Amino acid sequence: MNMPFSPKVTLIRLLDREDADELARIEKFVANHRHGTAFHRPAWVLAVSKACNHEWRYILAEDTEGQLQGILPLSLIHSPLFGRALVSSGFAVGGGILSLNDQATEMLADTAWNFAQKHSFPSVELRGGPIPAGNWQNKDGVYAGFASSLADDEESQLLAIPRKQRAEVRKGLKNQLTVRTGSSEQDGTDHYAVYAESVRNLGTPVFPKKLFDAVLDGFGEHADILTVLEDGRPVASVLSLYHNETVMPYWGGGTHDARRLRANDIMYFALMNHARKRGCRRFDFGRSKVGTGAYSFKKNWGFEPQSLSYAIRAINGEEVRDVNPMSPKYRLQVALWQKLPLPIANHLGPIIARGLG
Length: 357
Prior knowledge:
By secondary structure, the chain is of the alpha+beta class. The protein is built from 12 helices and 13 strands. Strands 1, 2, 3, 4, 5, 6, 7, 8, 9, 10, 11, 12 and 13 form a 13-stranded mixed β-sheet that branches. A hairpin with a 3-residue loop joins strand 3 and strand 4 (about 85-90). The protein is globular. This is FemAB family PEP-CTERM system-associated protein.
């Protein structure tokens, strides 16, 4: 006689302190899960908390034997300008529920929502992962992700780039630019100077430098900075994350001269080759909003867009916060920010940006 099937009971609890054993369990769970990302890792969650002064929580789902069945990292975002929200994960383009079964998914989502109500957060944002059942909005068609396999060698990588974009890379290769990789204090200083100028030119406030430093410290050998220089002067730079044989160039930008020198093209081509030497097999170009210049740029490299879905839930009658700088409501602010002198933008930017989450 067959025994009736009875699924394992899943238990839920909150982790709100830096318990080394618990964090090690989470790291292992993320590393072994095929949908795990750098943004699920404690290294990311703790870096965001320490650099931007936001509290954090992990919601853990376990079976009756104490084995993890799912996790949900949360950043508790507080901002006088942009409001409050529970975000998974803060300052990331990924995260969300990471689970082994539907039961764990639903229990993690329900617990996050109950936590939000108890602590007066009007919304919960899950960036990636499964969409929970019930009153969760599926926000899709707004962003797309771009990822592809790396080629076997440098020449094959160059030939894998579509013809028009490959021509831009070849032009850049003639400009006698040099490339430096590392995670030293100088690397961090050069990267922040380039990145801050880049985002000012786009009309958005720069994140605190402490965030970049905390991510580098937390990720150790799983993060580094690649900088392109002209006569020793940094003109393009990117901070990249490495996770399960995949490289993600996360915070990158270029100075005013970068376009003339094709420095950004050299930066990404050099990163592809650098990542291959590190043992990576995939290149994740990250997300871009559909219809933007960044979206077109990544398509020009031969990357096919894949629609991303985010789950959002808000209290009845409350509007979900809008922190997208491309939103029409911020058009005037973006235009004004682009005109700010760089020292002023770099002073005010981190104060504003730490509340974006």
